[in-house]
Amino acid sequence: MEVTMALTDGSRTTLEAYTAPVSIEVEGRTVYINMLALPKAKHNRTLLATNFLEKSGIVLDLKNKRRYFSHKPHHKICFKEDPDENLLQTAGSIIANSRHLREDEGTPLTPEQRENMNYLFEKFDSIFKPGGDPTPFVEHHINTEKHPPVSVPRTECRI
């Protein structure tokens, strides 16, 4: 399929893309979304957008660096600070050595769909490797309309 993306400079670009239904587990809740993969993007990383936040019911309290689920607004969870470097390296080596769906991944897929996904993982191996530069195809943009960006001083998160 082809998708048209708007970049932060206002320009638009059309790219080839693949989609796959995936399940993501967050705090014991499973969220089913369609993941978009850009085969020509190099070293891209997963980016979860607002559709994921909506479906999962996650509410972000950016000012206080906390999040919570819409069904439990009083149970606030602090954002994590910088992740442990060793943990990231371990996770990266696990990801680097697993270019196929695990048994618990892609459970809504038929056997043929699972086989096709695994084929794509192998064919576009370089896309799924951890690390590398950010993709030049998509840029993050926050529309502040006529207002200047807001800077919030760093505060300690307390519950």
Label this structure with key terms.
single chain, 159 residues, alpha+beta, three-stranded antiparallel beta sheet, 20% helix, globular
Question: What does this protein structure show overall?
Answer:
With 159 residues, the protein is of the alpha+beta class. Among the domains are: 2-78, no CATH class; 100-128, no CATH class. It is 20% helix and 27% strand. The protein has helices at 50-56, 85-96, 111-123; strands at 2-6, 12-16, 18-26, 29-37, 58-61, 66-69, 72-78. The strands form 3 sheets. It has a 3-stranded antiparallel sheet with strand order 5-6-7. The longest helix has 13 residues, at 111-123. The chain starts with a strand and ends in a 36-residue tail after the last helix.
Compute the number of strand runs: 7
Sheet with the most strands: spatial strand order: 5-6-7
Structural class: alpha+beta
**Stretches with pLDDT under 50, minimum 5 residues:** none
Q: Indicate the percent of residues in helices.
A: 10-25%
Q: On the 0-100 scale, what is the average pLDDT?
A: 75
What is the chain-wise order of helices and strands?
A: EEEEHEEEHH
Please give the count of helices.
3
Strand content: 25-35%
Shape: globular
Gap from first CA to last CA: 45 Å
Radius of gyration: 18 Å
Biggest β-sheet strands, sense, barrel? 3 strands, antiparallel
Short account of what is shown:
The protein has helices at residues 50-56, 85-96, 111-123, and strands at 2-6, 12-16, 18-26, 29-37, 58-61, 66-69, 72-78.
